[in-house]
Design goal:
This protein has 13 helices and 14 strands. Helix 4 runs parallel beside helix 5, helix 7 packs across helix 9 and helix 11 packs across helix 12. Helix 5 links the parallel strand 5 and strand 6. The longest helix has 31 residues. It is an alpha/beta fold and 427 residues long. A six-stranded parallel sheet has the order 3-2-1-4-5-6, sandwiched between helices.
Length: 427
């Protein structure tokens, strides 16, 4: 690429920081975030999301936005005025009614619009339904910049494919889908990513195709997990071990190895709602997509009911029992608590009169309290419980001596199916 490239990454979370770190190995990069404490922590070389190792982060950090290569982190819009590529990586959640909340996208587009110049390219990575980039975000850019789309500035879309907590499939090792608002811009966007993504890129013919490709990736996983969750419910009624069934079925070469579980997080548990709403706007009511969501959203209460049934069978008095929930994050070895379905399990257990202690060494205590009004602890409790539930399979939990946490007649329930025969039961 012959032009002088200076990249601004808007949003330094689970998606933005790894991407900024990667681009900073080859280009001057300014990482912008409105969270002052987050930026200060990154400037000190500490990533609380655990996505970028501290020593790796420190290698690319620079103390000025005008250095040739490296990453400069800031909360000031003035520091990104000289950038010509703006990559927006803010979250796209749903509200309490599972409707897409585009507020972070609108706000970040407004910020970029204030510094946008002729010739600049704005690339979105946030997961959205088809049409959001050009129909929702571009008008905001035009309004706040006073520039005309596809004449003065351009847009691209390259959906994030970060897998939080995964140290093997890192950003540069996952093939990247790219797109642009014109054929020429598509090639520019593709070349930019291709210069750092070792796994290669796939240039989609349009922004809407790239948006659609992203939103169906997680919708497909959601539906497949819903299927095995339903199987788990059926086989439990038949007194058949679901894990053993899946192991046997997996001997066929084209069997898809999905496992039952709680489906939360900011992608799989959210993206299907984005696609469903867009479909409804076109007059189509999606059946399979929403059926999968309903089933997966019901799994928290189902797990709680199974735990209670097993407690009763063991003669444990449910009302007033004390239970240890291991894990509150949405997945193993990751501190992210967004949209975690463990919360549903805890809520249902409390409705049975059970006292629940939540232990998670990775979760931020204050964040959990603010988001869910739940008290968590970061160290192993020094007491024994009537029931222990492995909700999240953190590596640290697999090293625990469970007998030290259990009373004589205690239940050990394994939501993730990783403890083998030492557990009384598993999902």
């Amino acid at each position: 690429m012959k032009e002088d490239i200076k990249i601004a990454i808007i949003g330094l979370g689970y998606v933005g920081l790894p991407l900024a770190r990667l681009f900073a190995t080859k280009y001057p990069v300014v990482g912008f975030d409105i969270n002052e404490s987050r930026v200060e922590s990154l400037k000190a070389g500490v990533d609380s999301t655990l996505e970028v190792e501290d020593d790796v982060l420190k290698k690319v950090l620079v103390d000025s936005p005008n250095v040739k290569n490296g990453l400069f982190c800031t909360t000031s819009l003035n520091d990104i005025t000289n950038c010509n590529y703006f990559i927006i990586t803010v979250p796209t959640p749903v509200d309490r009614n599972n409707r897409p909340d585009l507020t972070p996208l609108y706000k970040s587009s407004e910020s970029v619009g204030k510094v946008l110049k002729k010739g600049d390219i704005v690339i979105y990575e946030s997961t959205v339904y088809p049409g959001v980039t050009e129909e929702q975000c571009v008008p905001v850019l035009e309004k706040f910049s006073g520039l005309k789309f596809n004449e003065d500035f351009f847009a691209g879309y390259s959906p994030e494919r970060i897998n939080p907590g995964d140290k093997e499939h890192t950003v540069e090792k996952i093939l990247k889908v790219t797109s642009g608002s014109t054929p020429e811009i598509g090639l520019k966007v593709d070349s930019l990513y291709k210069s750092v993504i070792t796994a290669g890129t796939h240039l989609a013919p349009s922004i809407k195709v790239a948006e659609a490709a992203k939103v169906i990736e997680n919708s497909q996983r959601d539906i497949n997990i819903a299927f095995v969750n339903e199987l788990a419910k059926i086989f439990n009624l038949m007194n058949i071990d679901t894990q053993e069934v899946l192991t046997a079925a997996a001997t066929k070469w084209n069997f898809l190895p999905f496992k039952p579980g709680l489906v939360g997080g900011h992608c799989i548990g959210v993206d299907p709602y984005y696609l469903a709403q867009r479909a409804q706007e076109f007059g189509y009511h999606p059946e399979i997509i929403l059926a999968g969501r309903r089933l997966n959203d019901s799994m928290g209460e189902y797990v709680a009911s199974q735990v209670v049934k097993l407690m009763i069978k063991k003669g444990i008095s449910v009302n007033g029992a004390n239970l240890l929930m291991l894990g509150i994050t949405f997945k193993e070895n990751c501190p992210d608590v967004r949209n975690t379905k463990i919360v549903d399990v805890v809520k249902a257990l409390k409705e049975y009169g059970i006292s629940v202690t939540i232990y998670d060494p990775l979760a931020n205590v204050e964040e959990v309290k603010k988001e869910y009004k739940l008290i968590t602890i970061n160290s192993v409790p020094n007491e024994k419980f009537d029931a222990v539930v492995l909700g999240v399979a953190h590596a640290e939990f697999l090293k625990l001596n469970f007998s030290e946490l259990q009373k004589t007649n205690s239940l050990l329930y394994d939501v993730k199916g990783v403890l083998g025969t030492i557990a009384d039961n598993r999902l």
